[in-house]
Specification:
With 732 residues, this protein is an alpha+beta fold. The strands form five sheets. Strands 17-18-19-20-29-26-25-22-23 form a nine-stranded antiparallel sheet, with no helix packed on it. Strands 1, 2, 3, 9 and 10 form a five-stranded parallel sheet that branches. Strand 1 (5-13), helix 1 and strand 2 form a beta-alpha-beta unit. The protein contains 19 helices and 29 strands. Residues 720-728 have low confidence and may be disordered. Among the domains are: 5-274, 7-stranded beta/alpha barrel (Alpha-Beta Barrel), CATH 3.20.110.20; 499-714, Beta-galactosidase, Chain A, domain 5 (Distorted Sandwich).
């Protein structure tokens, strides 16, 4: 006689590309290893296990015995290895070639390392798009698991979700399991018996019912207080014991066994969706709160309960709208992906380098830095830095694959970020500068090829729904957005540190302020913008000379209502690690006197850390001006440098003579965001702003000019710092 209920238990263990070794090691000790030991002790427990590629590779480097023990459990038929895309991308953001490539590559790795047959996969963050079905099937996958939330959004009722279904796309079919949201919240946060009671309810309702749990393995030991509850206090041991003692009616099944033994309930076409919380997090702050409120009302008002399955937020893709930085990373992955596709078609000079470039691209598609919810995500600088590290490395490997070598310089144009407007890419063998003429003429990405680092992997500060809780101050135990989320304040005074930016935190952002502006207002983000240049559209022209290219940007705008033309030129030479920058203001009335500040951003250079500091022009004396979290208000200054000896970056901004001897000052200050992680609310250093500024007074022709140089030296390569020599670029 068949069991009254079949229980599929799937764990998803993941660590992102770029996470710190010590963080992963702690997760190993607190969660992954104790779980493995408990599984070895409870021989009646069978489950599906998905370990993301970045974590599996880490195990192979640091704890290969862990994988060996997993392989033995696989051979015993107690664990089914669940595959996936190798580096845990959200599949919906990838082109088909990368979806299929990532899935196949990881399947091959798992089969080779664990001797495991892989027939199913984990979909990262359960972000589903109907167009993925054919690609997943083409990659050799027969089944996957999604949330019951997806199925309810397709119109299926609760009593239809105790079985698996088929979905179809472009003629390909895929078996799909609905994960119970109820079990996601009960395990491991309710009493162990609560799950048994739920399984009994399902069995009583329909003999042979299927129940599916699928969620993060980090819930068992890594999340706050869970190691104590799950292991020290024995929650998991008790839970596994209950499952075994009730095996006369509860059958623990592996997903592939269910697909093999039972026919699907039917075919359902699932809408674009993710789990419930994700669809809320993607919404702007005020709409996120409205969505949560609507769901709460529908849950408590009996007349509205019928519409509850259809109250959901937005599409995961719109994280790229919420966070322009996410779109910039995505656009960079697409640029690399398309380049590698062209190389494959044309044939690589160095095929091994093409393989290396492809794997670096795949690592750069790891999802965690592209969004934000209950975890730090895009707010964590080391995750953003890791994405760019991989994408820049992929481009360098692509150069080798194509046979490109020696010193070179180039400029190309395209709609690189998919906003319907043209961007400019100015590159050489050392630097890669991405410029957005239509968005303030800003420099929005600056890649240092020697260090594989984007100096502009910054983050704008914007409203978040949970800021309502932060601004209310400590006191409430739970978040006003998500009752499951802690509202712990990890630092005092966070309610006083919530700031929002009114313009991009990039480079060559042009600000006009009051003549007597207080530096504190600028640093706190409360200074009033008196011009329309920071986000205005600039015309762009490219000037080419042998070994030297200049991008000229120009805009007719106004400051305090006074019309003027602001032109700025960015020049790069082959073999150089210096951007030459020149500004020209023209059409100024004789009595013009305004305060111009040009913003530069420096990301990935943390504060309050050894070997990271500001220095002044007497670099040979190493006269430090403070660590990179210091606020500086410098007057009568010709240069400012920033050192990060861990990354090997020595960045120096040098200022030339300005018209009429206008004296330059420099403001420098850190940008810090108040964000949410699994541990609560915290202050996160995002970048350093360096802002030279002048009181502009024109010459007799109504013109004002100044030139600057941004020079990047590679400390690790032993490149000595060289004083700036020769004339600077000019806007003619």
């Amino acid at each position: 006689m068949s069991s009254a209920v079949r229980f599929v238990f799937v764990l998803h263990d993941h660590q992102p590309v770029g996470n710190f070794d010590e963080v992963i090691e702690q997760a190993y000790q607190d969660s992954y290893l104790p779980m493995l030991k408990l599984l070895e002790q409870h021989r009646g427990i069978r489950l599906g296990l998905h370990t993301s590629g970045p974590l599996a590779e880490w195990f192979d480097r640091h704890h290969p015995d862990y994988l060996d023990r997993l392989a033995r459990l696989v051979a015993d038929g107690r664990i089914e290895i669940v595959g996936g895309a190798f580096y845990e991308p959200v599949l919906a953001m990838l082109p088909s070639r990368d979806r299929i490539g990532q899935i196949r590559l990881y399947t091959e790795w798992l089969q080779r390392r664990l001797n495991a047959k892989v027939s199913g996969m984990w979909v990262a963050e359960r972000v589903w798009d109907p167009g993925m079905t054919a690609d997943i099937k083409a990659a050799g996958i027969d089944w996957t698991i999604l949330d019951d939330f997806h199925f309810k959004a397709a119109g299926l009722s609760d009593d239809k979700l105790d079985r698996h279904w088929l979905t179809e796309g472009d003629g390909a079919t895929l078996a799909v399991f609905p994960v119970s949201e109820h079990l996601r919240y009960v395990i491991p946060f309710g009493a162990p018996q609560a799950t048994i009671d739920h399984l009994r309810f399902l069995a009583d309702r329909r003999h042979g019912a299927l129940a599916v749990f699928g969620d993060d393995g980090e819930k068992f030991g890594v999340w706050p207080d869970t190691h104590k509850a799950c292991f020290s206090e024995g929650w998991l041991d008790t839970f596994f014991g209950l499952l075994q003692s009730n095996r006369d009616w509860i059958e623990m099944s592996l997903p592939s066994e269910v697909v093999r033994d039972q026919p699907p309930a039917g075919t359902v076409w699932l809408p674009e969706c993710s789990y419930r919380e994700m669809t809320e997090w993607v919404l702007p702050a005020e709409l996120q709160l409205a969505c949560v409120k609507a769901r709460t009302m529908a849950q408590t008002d009996q007349s509205l309960t019928g519409i509850l399955p259809f109250i959901r937020g937005g599409s995961w893709r719109n994280f790229r709208r919420r966070y322009p930085e996410a779109n910039e990373m995505y656009a960079r992955t697409m640029s690399v992906s398309e380049r590698l596709a062209r190389i494959r078609t044309a044939g690589a000079v160095n095929p091994a380098a093409l393989v290396e470039a492809t794997q670096a691209l795949y690592r750069g598609q790891c999802n965690c830095a592209y969004w934000h919810g209950a975890f730090g995500g895009i707010y964590l600088p080391h995750l953003r830095n890791a994405i760019y590290h991989e994408l820049i490395a992929a481009d360098i490997a692509a150069d080798i694959a194509e046979g490109r070598k020696g010193a070179w310089v180039d400029a190309t144009t395209d709609d690189y970020d998919f906003d319907g407007r043209t961007e400019v890419r100015l590159s050489n063998d050392g630097l890669d500068a991405w410029i957005a003429p239509a968005r303030g003429g800003i420099l929005y990405e600056l890649d240092l090829r020697d260090q594989c680092h984007n100096l502009l992997a910054t983050l704008d500060r914007q409203p978040e729904a949970y800021h309502a809780q932060v601004l209310a101050g400590p006191g409430e135990a739970r978040s006003v957005v998500d009752a499951s989320q802690l509202a712990k304040f990890k630092q005092p005074g966070l309610e006083k540190l919530v700031r929002y930016d009114t313009s991009r935190r990039k480079s060559l952002v042009d600000h006009f302020y009051d003549v007597d502006i207080d530096s504190t207002a600028v640093m706190n983000g409360t200074a009033m913008e008196r011009g329309d240049f920071a986000a205005g559209a600039y015309a762009a022209n490219i000037r080419r000379n042998p070994g030297r290219i200049q991008i000229l940007l120009s805009r007719l705008g106004n400051a305090w209502g006074i019309p003027l033309t602001l032109s700025k030129a960015i020049t790069l030479e082959s073999g150089s690690r210096t951007l030459e920058i020149a500004y020209k203001l023209a059409g100024l009335p004789p009595d013009f006197r305004q305060h111009l500040a040009v913003e530069f951003g420096f990301a990935g250079m943390p504060p309050r850390a050894r070997g990271r500091f500001f220095y002044d022009h007497s670099h040979s004396e190493h006269r430090q001006l403070g660590e990179l979290g210091t606020r500086l208000d410098l007057t009568v200054v010709r240069s400012l440098g920033l050192i990060d000896d861990w990354l090997g970056i020595d960045a120096r901004l040098s200022l030339g003579e300005a018209t009429n001897g206008s004296i330059a000052g420099i403001w420098a200050f850190p940008l810090e965001s108040v964000s949410q992680s699994e541990g609560g609310f915290e202050l996160v250093h995002q970048s350093v702003v360096v802002m030279p500024h002048w009181l502009v007074t024109p010459d007799a022709d109504g013109v004002w000019k100044v030139s600057m140089k941004l020079t990047i030296a590679n400390l690790k390569a032993g490149q000595p710092f060289q004083p700036v020599q020769g004339t600077m670029a000019e806007v003619v």
